[in-house]
Design brief:
It contains 9 helices and 11 strands. It has 299 residues and is of the alpha+beta class. Among the domains are: 73 residues, Urease metallochaperone UreE, N-terminal domain (HSP40/DNAj peptide-binding domain), CATH 2.60.260; 97 residues, Urease metallochaperone UreE, N-terminal domain (HSP40/DNAj peptide-binding domain, Sandwich), CATH 2.60.260. A hairpin with a 2-residue loop joins strand 2 and strand 3. It is elongated, with a radius of gyration of 31 Å.
Length: 299
Amino acid sequence: MEFIDYYKILDVPKTATPEDIKKSYRKLARKYHPDLNPNNKAAEAKFKEISEANEVLSNPENRKKYDQYGKDWEHADAFEAQKQQQQQQQSQRRGGQFRPEDTDDFSAYFESMFGGNGRQNRQTRFRGQDINAELHLSLTEVYETKKQEITINGKSIRLTIPAGIENGQVIKIAGHGAPGVNSGPNGDLYITFTIENDTPFKRDGDHLYKKEDIDLYTALLGGDIQVDTFDSKVKLKVAPETQTGTTVKLKGKGFPVYKKEGSFGDLFIQYEVKLPTQLTEEEKALLLQLKTIRTHEDQ
C-alpha cells in the first residue's frame, strides 16, 4: 500500500491545529466539490482525497495513529495488542524476565501481521477502525427527508437523512468503517452533521422563531398581514393596539420532528412595529393634533 501524505493533501503542516485542519478542509471541499465541478473527474478524485485526509486528521486518536504508523495506522490497535501479547509470551518463556532486546522482534511481527506469512497473521482476527466523517447541509435541505450520497475512502455510500436532523447530531452506520484484519468485522462509520442556517428563521429544536415588521398604522388600528412560514405563506390578523415584541404562535408550522413523520414543532412570530420616516408637514400636523388630544385625555 502506497503511503499517502494526508498533511500534504490538506495543505497543512504536521504541527497544524485542529482548527487549521478544519479550515483548510472546508476551503478545499468547497473548491473541489462535485456539485461545483460537474463531469470533472480530476476534481472528483481530489475531493475524495481531501475527504479521506480529513477523516483521519480531524480525529485526534486516528491522527496520533497516523503520525506513528503512517499507511498502516488503521492496524495500530492490532499491532499494539500483538506487541503486548508477544511481550507476555517472551516474558513467560524467560521465567517472567523481560529484556529490552526483546523489542527488536516487534518490527518483524508487524510485518508478519500486515504483509507476511506469520502463523499469528492467519489466526488472529481484528475489527476494523471506526471512521468519523462530517457532512455539511443547509437548514433548508434537512426540512424534508432526502437521500444523500457521500464518499468515504473512495467508496460511495447512499444515505437516507430523516427530516429534522439537528446541528451536531451524530449517526452511526454499522459496518461502513475501515475493513477488518484477517476477515475480522469492519468498523463503523460515524457521521457528524453540520447544519448551516440559510433562512430568516431561528431554529430551537423543533420550533422556529421569526421577527415580522408591521407598520405603525396596522399596529394601532389592526389589520391583516401576510407572513412567510418555512414552506408557505399564511394570513394573520393583527389585533388593534399591538405592541412591539408581541408574539403569536402558529401551531404545527415549525420544523419537522426527527423521525416522526408528519409531526412539526411550532412557529413563533414576534411583531416589530416600524415607525414612519420622512414625515410631511401635513402628517406632522396630524400627529401633533393627536398628541394634543391624548394629552387632554390623560389629564
